[in-house]
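Private note to self, pasted from the team thread so I don't lose it. Backbone tokens:
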């Protein structure tokens, strides 16, 4: 940022490093604290740069919805995600991103998504077959297996239980490693702080090789058998956008992106929802009563979802309290005039679901898990940008309808049979990595439903 620019208020931090350590070590608490102390537009000094945190809805609207073309996603600039996902949708930019988005979008149309409902429910019932009343499970890995299996089947017509655990472990290593790397800050000091160890690099490379081998085998098999399987992989292989086919590398990047983005967030959503329900038995009872009235003990279908409003409010509230995507980063590609400040091109803006979703001035009692706040009868109309678990504007999560259907179907299936309880004395801590995950997993006891 240019030296002469007047900055919004913010913490100066220590000499040389600025706020590096609190920003890096506890970004949830740090961001919440600076919003309370300095307000809704805060300049945070980190080493020799500033990042601008915009906490209130107008900044979310400005960056994501009103001026998306003035910014690019910091995910596209580097880091482990970019190394893994290449030029996939999440990590590409500009015309290429828009072209790829047009290509992939039809696979996420409502009618298409509705066809996945049976797979989602059947696989959940399969998972339930392996569970036993009173046993302890580690819910994060259970939900990872389930959501990964669902994404592989629905997107790529693969059902290979043998590989699921290996792929899950590889994703955990690759995506969640090296959290301290600030690839988007520039300069020698940033490189020094962001350095990874040889061990970490090796783990990353091994994980990526496992995932790469899986995806390239999948593509080769499909190319050789040439049958249209009616899934997104067949569509990508057949696609020619303005006469030009996608290269295997481009297909690989999209497949990897959908695999990664399609399970990690849903897995965490489910974990956090079980956690919240375990702490709020009255909410669970109300939800169970709704499920019983509508489903009468049978498995849910896509059509049932419209009859299950309380389930939808529970999910909305869970995404508010524990947003799986907890922060979105953008870099300005041109000068930005905002609230009387002039930010030069290159400035980084951070938008924080975690903070905005917990601001008392927006939510009244943000720390209370209260699904009723989503009842349209009481709910005041939320201004755009107050609630953005799926982002917004042209880069809004393409998998949103898929995820909204998936988590509700899975919960409706599981919660009729079990009410998972938190293992006593467990200290559950949200860990902000690429997504917000429970730091030490989520150990739960499967209490059978009477
Ligand atoms: C609860 C579940 C989910 C949450 C909370 C979530 C959240 C998000 C958010 C916040 C973004 C925007 C990132 C940004 O603006 O920089 C995003 C983008 C994306 N999501 Fe999701 N997501 C979820 C599920 C899914 C699923 C199931 C899929 C695929 C099957 C998916 C695929 C993607 C892709 C490909 C993008 C990039 C879109 C683009 O830039 O055009 N997501 N997601």
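Design output:
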């Amino acid at each position: 940022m240019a030296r002469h620019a007047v900055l919004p208020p913010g913490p100066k931090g220590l000499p040389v490093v600025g706020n590096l350590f609190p920003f890096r070590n506890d970004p949830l608490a740090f961001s919440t604290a600076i919003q309370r102390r300095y307000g809704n537009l805060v300049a945070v000094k980190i080493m020799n740069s500033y990042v601008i945190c915009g906490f209130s809805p107008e900044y979310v609207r400005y960056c994501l919805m009103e001026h998306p073309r003035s910014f690019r996603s910091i995910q596209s600039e580097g880091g482990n995600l970019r190394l893994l996902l290449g030029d996939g949708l999440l990590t590409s930019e500009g015309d290429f991103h828009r072209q790829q988005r047009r290509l992939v979008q039809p696979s996420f149309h409502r009618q298409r998504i509705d066809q996945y409902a049976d797979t989602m429910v059947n696989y959940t019932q399969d998972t339930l077959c392996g569970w036993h009343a009173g046993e302890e499970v580690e819910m994060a890995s259970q939900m990872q297996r389930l959501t990964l299996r669902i994404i592989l089947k629905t997107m790529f017509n693969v059902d290979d239980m043998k590989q699921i655990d290996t792929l899950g472990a590889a994703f955990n290593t690759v995506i969640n490693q090296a959290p301290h790397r600030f690839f988007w800050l520039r300069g020698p000091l940033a490189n020094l702080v962001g350095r990874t160890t040889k061990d970490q690099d090796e783990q990353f490379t091994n994980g990526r090789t496992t995932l790469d081998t899986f995806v390239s085998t999948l593509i080769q098999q499909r190319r050789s058998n040439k049958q249209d399987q009616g899934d997104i992989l067949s569509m990508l292989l057949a696609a020619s956008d303005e006469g030009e086919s996608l290269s295997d590398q481009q297909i690989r990047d999209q497949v990897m992106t959908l695999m990664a983005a399609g399970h990690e967030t849903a897995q965490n959503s489910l974990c956090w929802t079980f956690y919240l329900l375990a702490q709020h038995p009255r909410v669970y009872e109300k939800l169970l009563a709704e499920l019983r009235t509508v489903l009468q003990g049978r498995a849910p279908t896509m059509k049932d979802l419209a009859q299950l409003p309380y389930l939808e409010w529970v999910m909305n509230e869970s995404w508010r309290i524990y947003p799986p995507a907890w922060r979105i980063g953008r870099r300005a590609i041109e000068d930005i005039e905002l609230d009387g400040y002039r930010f030069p091109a290159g400035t980084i803006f951070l938008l924080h679901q975690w903070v905005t979703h917990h601001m008392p001035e927006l939510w009244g009692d943000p720390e209370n898990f209260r699904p009723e706040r989503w009842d349209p009868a009481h709910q005041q109309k939320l201004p755009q940008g107050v609630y953005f678990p799926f982002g917004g504007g042209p880069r809004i999560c393409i998998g949103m309808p898929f995820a909204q259907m998936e988590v509700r179907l899975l919960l409706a299936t599981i919660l009729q049979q079990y009410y998972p309880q938190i293992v006593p004395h467990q200290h559950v801590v949200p860990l902000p990595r690429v997504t917000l995950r429970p730091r030490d997993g989520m150990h739960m006891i499967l209490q059978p439903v009477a």
